[in-house]
Amino acid sequence: MELRPDKYLKYLGLPALFGVERTKKILSVNPTIPPQREEAGEVKIMAYDYNAVELKEYYFDRIEDCFYLKESNNTTWINIDGLRKADVEAISAHYEIHNLVVEDILSINQRPKMDEINTILFCLLNTLYYNDEKKTVEQEQVSIVLGNGFVISFQEDAQRDVFNPLRGRLKLNNVKLRQNGADYLCYSLLDLIVDNYFIVMEGLGENIEQLEEEVIRHSNKRSLAKINQLRKELIVLKRNMTPVRDLINGILRSESELLQDRNTKYFKDIYDHIVQANELTENYRDILMNIQDLYISNLNLKMNEVMKVMAIVTCLLAPPTVIVGIFGMNFNNIPLAHTASGFYLTVFITLMIPAVMLWIFKRRGWF
């Protein structure tokens, strides 16, 4: 009969304990493989056409319905939740967006970046969300196209949207967002994404604090699994956040006519935030390394305690073993072996020597 260990290993719960599937998902990033993006089942198309005194809000069922907004003299923001290849290609062709940008929008697991192609400034980065139930960091690719008087944003998920606070501000009068152009709108979108990183880090930070307290009080094998899981989530966090610093830096170095000099200070503010976020990620990583070292130290301490108890027990049993072994030998001429008091004297010495040894060990603080 052929033995199949893998048939029974699944019942041990090791993949679930150490997150093997999560590791595979994190490492399965290969930009050379053509993306196999599934068509979105639901698409939401929202548009805002505004200036300092007027705001118009639109909801469209078809992508072609928003094409007329290109002729508007106001600032236009078109947001598409849910990606379909036909929709992306249609609006890109209407707004003269390069095919390379279209490929990046439809890509999967793309590295955050910034490109300037023709009269378009393109930003691609990931919005991060923290899943409290699974204790994982989830990502959503967001593409932002800045053109002359318009901004088009593409989001993968139509169910959750990090830009909702921005929509609320647009409806207020006398706000900077309404008084500035499309570049300030682009700044506002990027700023919301970067600010959301701190919310995700707060969720991870709380778990790290709980894990540290757990390791200090009563660590076990599951503590090591939690450390391993949090380190993986930090990898996801760092992979998505670190390139954003180069993205913002590219905007600051850009000489594009789409960016006004008076708004440069706002992009510098985003740069400061993303630098701070990366530093916090490094701090979290160092804390997790310290927690792992603490876990190993506790494990070694427990092992040392066990070895110390075993050593003491061995030392206490050694003299009685010698005494009993001597009096148990097959010789006739053993002192006190055939007397009435010999047995009681042997028992007394057997118990007295370990008691004296125990007193000496206690006095020296060995336990």
Describe this structure in words.
It is a single chain. The chain has helices at 5-9, 14-18, 20-27, 85-94, 99-105, 164-170, 176-179, 182-218, 221-253, 264-327, 340-363, and strands at residues 44-50, 55-60, 75-81, 113-117, 120-131, 136-147, 150-155. The two termini are 52 Å apart. The longest helix is centred in the C-terminal third of the chain and has 64 residues, at 264-327. It has 2 domains: 42-298, Beta Polymerase, domain 2 (2-Layer Sandwich), CATH 3.30.460; 308-363, Methane Monooxygenase Hydroxylase, Chain G, domain 1, CATH 1.20.58.340. It has 11 helices and 7 strands. A hairpin with a 4-residue loop joins strand 5 (120-131) and strand 6 (136-147). It is rod-shaped, with a radius of gyration of 34 Å. It is of the alpha+beta class. The protein has a 7-stranded mixed β-sheet, sandwiched between helices.
CATH architectural group of the largest domain: 2-Layer Sandwich
Radius of gyration, in angstroms, nearest whole number: 34 Å
Q: Give the strand order of the largest sheet, numbering strands 1, 2, ... along the chain.
A: 2-1-3-7-6-5-4
- CATH fold assignment of the largest domain: Beta Polymerase, domain 2
List the helices and strands and how they pair.
Layout: H1 5-9, H2 14-18, H3 20-27, E1 44-50, E2 55-60, E3 75-81, H4 85-94, H5 99-105, E4 113-117, E5 120-131, E6 136-147, E7 150-155, H6 164-170, H7 176-179, H8 182-218, H9 221-253, H10 264-327, H11 340-363
Parallel strand pairs: 3-7
Antiparallel strand pairs: 1-2, 1-3, 4-5, 5-6, 6-7
Helix pairs in contact: 8-9, 8-10, 9-10, 10-11
